Amino acid sequence: MINTLALNLLADVMKWDNEVATEEYAWLRLISSMKYDGYSDFRAGVRFLESLVSWLRHFAEADRATAYHFVKTRLVYISTLEMQRVIETFIPETVTPYLRCSVGEELGIKPYEVWKTAEAAVAFRRRLRRCLFVGLSDGSRIDVLRRANAGRLSQEQVIPMMNVDDEKWKSLADDLKKKQGAEARFDDVYLIDDFTASGTTFIRFPDGKPKGKLYKFEKIVQDAKKRLKDDFPLTDGYTLHIHHYVSTKQAHDALVERVTEANERLKNKSFGSTLITEGMLLPSDLRVAAIDKETRAATPTKPTDGPIVDLCRRYYDHALFKRLEPHCKEAGQTDMKYGYADCALPLILEHNTPNNAIPILWAETDGTLGEPMQPLFFRRDRHG
């Protein structure tokens, strides 16, 4: 009943005749049940259709068709099942090929020959056990990773959060030594997170001082290494892997650049070489606009994106920027019309909307410094 009422309200808001309404209802029912109703931050009693009605109403009548067309043709929503699939493929599609190459090089054989002999298979399992997997946030879904790799990964090589106390470091070391001998250490460390859009927060040097998740982990490692000495479980100069389940091309390129800078600027760093990987790489043309940092002009990525870029410009409350100003200034922004770091993404993740998505999708303001903003997908904001 509620679903039917929401559809009727939507037809009224959009001024659809019976023929158009019937066609759109079929798509709306399908996409709601298959994807959008699963969004975790919809408010009580409000799912996708109810939220869509409220969202469309806040646009002028002449702009509603543009907003609806954008949702239907350009919005990308990564569901719970899709994210789970990306997590499940992490070990077989990212870690395994890397280890096969490493073991093959060690034994002087081709990577595809690694499982040809018992010796090579044992060497592979040995190298896999010497990989440490570290979650950087709740989004790393370590529980899902563990379940997907039961019998393949030990509980003593997976850490749900990077804040590791001395007892845990010792436990990791002791278990590895029992399995592989007194000299055994972790040769590879994987830092895992769910999503990156800009790559700017992972490591940065505002005012010449390092900040970000990589620096935080490096400091934790260095401090623990000083305290524990021979009981510390990481090899000197271990290989550091930075893995995101989902990443944009913009973030990948930024991470390569910033990690290269970190390799030069971090003194006496604990890690050696670094590798940046992702389970799903979103293409550059996913974003709706490219933003000129000097003029703040937005160039639509695709010819059909012009109308939605115009809506981002007009339906904007600068109070959003003021609320997030310290965070935004680190990315060199003077407004938030196109999301954090000007990523301009038409993207929703099932557990929350990233602030790199265009704000007309997620921002909620009262219009004190511009137009009131109504969210289609409510965002839980960590920064303000």
Task: Name a few traits of the molecule.
384 residues; alpha/beta; two-stranded parallel ribbon; 14 helices; elongated
Could you characterize the architecture of this molecule?
The structure is a single chain. The protein is of the alpha/beta class and 384 residues long. It has 3 domains: 1-34; 61-74 and 288-384, no CATH class; 81-284, no CATH class. The chain contains 14 helices and 9 strands. A 5-stranded parallel β-sheet has the order 3-2-4-5-6. Helix 1 packs parallel to helix 3. The mean pLDDT is 93.
Order of helices and strands: HHHHEHHHEHEHEHEHEEEHHHE
Total domains: 3
Range of strand content = 5-15%
Shape: elongated
Strand count, sense and closure of the main sheet? 5 strands, parallel
Which strands sit side by side, in order, in the main sheet? 3-2-4-5-6
What is Rg? 24 Å
- Percent of residues in helical segments? 40-55%
Mean pLDDT: 93
Cα(first) to Cα(last) distance is 37 Å
Number of DSSP-assigned strands? 9
User: With helices defined by DSSP (H or I, 4 residues minimum), what is the helix count?
Assistant: 14
Q: What structural class results from the helix and strand content?
A: alpha/beta
Unreliable stretches (pLDDT < 50, length at least 5) are none
